[in-house]
Write a structure and sequence with these properties.
Layout lengths: L2 H13 L21 E3 L28 H15 L6 H4 L1 E8 L4 E6 L11 H13 L4 E8 L8 E2 L3 E4 L8 H13 L4 E2 L3 E4 L34 H11 L3 E2 L3 E3 L7 E9 H10 L3 H13 L8 H14 L23 H12 L2 H10 L22 E8 L2 E9 L5 E9 L4 H16 L1
Parallel strand pairs: 5-7, 6-8, 7-9, 8-10
Antiparallel strand pairs: 1-11, 2-3, 2-14, 4-6, 4-11, 12-13, 13-14
């Protein structure tokens, strides 16, 4: 393992915890204590609509000469996997399997790989890879404080202050205080005007497209672009202002940043800080945050799910598949309207593996069989333990698992197992675990 990969794995292991329940097995985590980095930014960039550029498809080239023993081993593995197509589960549920040998550069097995199916939280795999590719591995989620320039000698700001929400799921009160301390350092003691909340990074829809009305709040988090540790916003802002030594005379209200306002400071968290809870613990709010970071690239005020999906579709086209063959409804997999395939997941995983920097960030975020995240209690004491790095997915009737496997011959495999119409999630998980053992034996 490279030093960079080890660093990323350790960083993720130290960061896992935020205060929300999650879809897969309802695992809890705690928000990290460290506040976001706060910086005084350069001049504001103008807001304008941007078109999603078409991308050239990527062509993958297998190894020109593959040793005979590898071909034999893959042939033996394909024969093992073929048995799973005759498993009793396939008689009552829809099952899709795709396995690709990344080291040898060749497909190993496919069963219903192009069948369009609902992925549950495996949708997070596609969201994560598309975001790492489209936004960059050094991307930061930002919350920005603005203010007018008229400050009296007594420290009174005559105009308004505005906070531009960046849909940062990691934002906490310590971050707010750090932002407001920067405002006080500018000489502000009293804000005579109002405190404006600019929530224009996304539309006003509280839930995702195709989410069930009767799901609980753990599965269906309210998609507000300004969330502070699940607390009411107004009291949190007033508390943080007071802690920074600033009094607010006006109201806290929604609006837009006015022309002429100056950037005071920016609080930011890395894309890794979002990926950790999103992938290890399957946090839906964190996944939707990343989905709408993509939508925000359109530069449209109040970008909606279609704007975000356009960037995922751009990525799908980039890896050589037709986005018209799929339905991208949200970033978390909660929606009933998502329809993708095992072939698509494996193509995305192949792309990530072919780009070492992207792969390092992605792999560090994935649950490890028998070790952590939503795979902590699965595959323990088997050949798959510590050799499967994969995202789980579970909603009623759906169970899925997609990621990477380390085979006994040292090869790295990309795989996707989608199960739809299952009566028992535990039966589907046991089926997936048996496949993972076959991949790693």
């Amino acid at each position: 393992m490279s030093k960079k990969s080890l660093f990323l794995l350790l960083a993720f292991a130290a960061a896992f915890s935020a205060s929300a329940q999650v879809e897969d097995d309802y695992l809890e985590y705690t928000q990290p204590d460290a506040p976001a980095a706060v910086a005084t930014p350069p001049a504001a960039e103008p807001e304008h609509a941007a078109e999603v550029e078409e991308a050239s498809p990527v062509t993958y080239h297998p190894s020109p000469t593959e040793p005979q023993n590898n071909r034999v081993q893959n042939g033996n593995l394909a024969a093992k996997l073929e048995q799973f197509s005759r498993d009793p589960l396939t008689e009552t549920a829809q099952v899709a399997i795709s396995v690709y040998d990344l080291t040898a550069g060749q497909p190993i097995y496919a069963f219903n790989a192009r069948q369009r199916m609902r992925p549950a939280s495996n949708m997070k795999v596609l969201t994560a890879i598309a975001a790492l590719d489209q936004l960059g591995t050094d991307y930061r989620v930002q919350t920005t404080l603005y203010a007018g320039s008229s400050i009296s000698a007594e420290g009174t700001l005559a105009g308004n202050v505005a906070l531009k929400a960046g849909f940062d799921p990691c934002l906490d009160e310590a971050d707010l205080r750090a932002l407001f301390v920067e405002l006080r350092n500018k000489g502000v003691r009293t804000i005579k005007g109002d405190f404006i909340l600019d929530l224009s990074i996304k539309d006003t829809a509280r839930w995702g497209w195709g989410w069930c009305w009767d799901d609980d709040a753990h599965t269906n988090p309210t998609l507000t672009p300004l969330s502070i540790e699940n607390r009411a916003i107004n009291p949190a802002i007033r508390s943080a202002l007071t802690a920074a030594g600033i009094s607010l005379r006006g109201q806290i209200r929604r609006g837009r940043i006015a022309q002429g306002m100056q950037r005071i400071a920016v609080a930011h968290h890395t894309i890794d800080a979002v990926l950790g809870p999103m992938m290890k613990r399957s946090n839906n709010f964190f996944a939707e945050s990343l989905f709408y970071q993509l939508g925000a690239q359109s530069r449209k005020p109040y970008a909606n799910h279609k704007d975000a999906a356009a960037y995922v579709e751009k990525f799908v086209r980039k890896i050589g598949l037709n986005p018209d063959a799929y339905t991208i409804a949200d970033g978390s997999g909660v929606s009933l309207y998502n329809y993708v395939s095992a072939e698509l997941f494996v193509a995305a995983l192949r792309y990530a593996y072919a780009h070492p920097d992207l792969y390092a960030h992605l792999k560090a975020s994935l649950p490890i069989a028998g070790v952590d995240g939503t795979l902590k209690n699965r595959m323990q004491g088997t050949s798959a333990q510590r050799h499967i790095f994969a995202k789980t997915g579970t909603v009623t009737g759906i169970s899925s698992l997609s990621g990477y496997a380390e085979a006994s011959n040292g090869h790295v495999l990309a795989f996707s197992i989608l199960c739809q119409g299952v009566q028992s999630a535990s039966t589907a998980r046991a089926y997936q675990d048996r496949i993972c053992r076959a991949l790693t034996q």
